[in-house]
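Lab notebook, bench 4. The sequencing result for the construct came back, and we need a structural model before the next group meeting so we can plan mutations. Quick request posted to the team channel:

Model the 3D structure of this chain.
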Amino acid sequence: MAAIAAVIGLFGAAGVLRAADARTDDIERIDGLESVLADVPGDDPSIEYPAENYLLVGSDTRVGADPNSTDSAVIGTEADVGGTRSDTIMVLRQERNGGAALMSLPRDLWVEIAGTGKSQRINAAYNEGPERLAATVSESLGIPVHHYVEVDFFGFKNIIDDLGGVEVCVGYGARDANSGLEINPGCQVLDGVQALAFARSRHYEQWDGTEWVVDPRADLGRIERQQLFMRAAVDGALRKLRSSPFGSGDVIGAVVESVRIDDRLDPIEAGEALRQAAEEGLRTYRLPVYNDTVGDAAVLRLDDGADEVLRYFRGEGPAPADYETGVTESATGTGDPAADAAVAGN
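Done. Here's the predicted structure in token form:
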């Protein structure tokens, strides 16, 4: 689940800084991405929007899952999914002299898959590996990908637990029998298992006081909740760093065991850059899409306004204020986590 990937950056460097070098050296590297990753922007002042893009991928692999674990009801087992698929795809834009921006790419977005000459859902690109997915994002959407970070279900759960959980606020009680979600209205701290159930929920139901009402938006509703969770997780990570700057060792250990990154990414430098960006604020954006069908398959296509959002993440245009969905509390200074409750309660 990629919603935690920016938090990985925050904790990958902050607090223990260079003392973490020996541990981050053990992070698994992905070969074969060099040919599809964009050159990292330099300090050329002629570049109007200097930034770096991280392609964040949440894998839904259950390889190694224990069917007897108490978490299996939420995480599942190898029998549930064959091979690997992307559960979530996001682009994180780290501004050189500012904050950070996050955009989610719906799994059902219809695009041309790089190197094939054929169009499919973007999720299909990941089935052929990280290189194909990164190339598809670059070629079909025009977004330069400078770095790649991937985390699986187990890593997501462990990192959230080592963070001490994440406080999430919702306007109504909610459940999802498919993901195992059960939460009460109001603000509560979700542990790793319930955080995973919340972030993965595609069959989200809310209690309106009379009956359970299903969110009809499916993956689009899930993206909205993931972005809410992402903002909450980043704020929680920043609060923990401020209160205990040298207490991030457990989180770094969880990160080392849970993620895969491109071969040229320096976790220490990237983590410090992302921490500074998050201090300025993490802003989340929606990509305008509309429902369509191809044969018997339900897909999503880019809608009016999509180019404005894509231009920003390409480094070709300003931040698309009309499509901003939220900003971290650390940027607004409100200190009120209940402010997002209305978003999750829609």
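The chain has one domain: 2-163+248-335.
Will bring this to the meeting.
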